[in-house]
């Protein structure tokens, strides 16, 4: 239970649910380990820590277990230290959030969770379609990709999807795969994305390359010998559909690529229909292999176990082929 609670805190579990989890399992918890877990948040997200401490104080949690008063003293001292911390002071800061897909696959991501876009990119935060695709890959890996499939990720942003695949490979000691993790923003690639791979102890070497890639750019060729292209939340801007679909077609025609998996949040039905028609215009076929509407249980798991927030809209995963 100590490990699960530590994970939930790193996931930024809603405060009320954190308190309920602690209350319902307080006999199983180590106060020393709980203090250690809470302290680990202090340098990363003081505001979240303050809210958790306030919840513990307001609900008078763990008082019976704290016979010597050490935990209570620590809570009150720390809460007083954080009294002046407020949301406005942290909303533009980096946070390090754990995406826990099961007890074995956990990915840490440095991101700006409250930032929609900055410096002409939306890649500083993790979007729900990335989480959905990652979770689906964890749950259905053998049905979607093979161990020796070389992967190209487009618009990788924080790198969550590729890091999830790399984590699965690491667990299986799979060294057959090459991965090309790309984004159109070179500073994002060399900065935040690079940091996230290092933080998860995934080596960037001959098997895993992080690089800038503009879709449909003659100056930036598609990597060779790619088998599967993946992308998440790359369909929000209809002005990019021509370049995106041209890139997908180029991959399917000029390499050993046999399919593309694109996860899309449907914010606007017309935009989604336009993406489908653009895929067809470029001579490709599409089908939806899963969606939160088709499999409502996947939506529930995503919101209850990983994201802890409502979705902006339905999410689907397209399989695109020639």
From TrEMBL:
One annotated GO molecular function is: protein-lysine N-methyltransferase activity
Instruction: Pull one GO CC term from this UniProt entry.
Output: cytoplasm
Pfam families tied to this protein: Methyltransf_16
Task: Please state what the protein is called.
Answer: FAM86 N-terminal domain-containing protein
InterPro entries on file:
Methyltransf_16, SAM-dependent_MTases_sf
Q: Which organism is it from?
A: Naumovozyma castellii (Yeast)
Concerning SUPFAM superfamilies, the annotation shows: S-adenosyl-L-methionine-dependent methyltransferases
Keywords in alphabetical order, please: Transferase
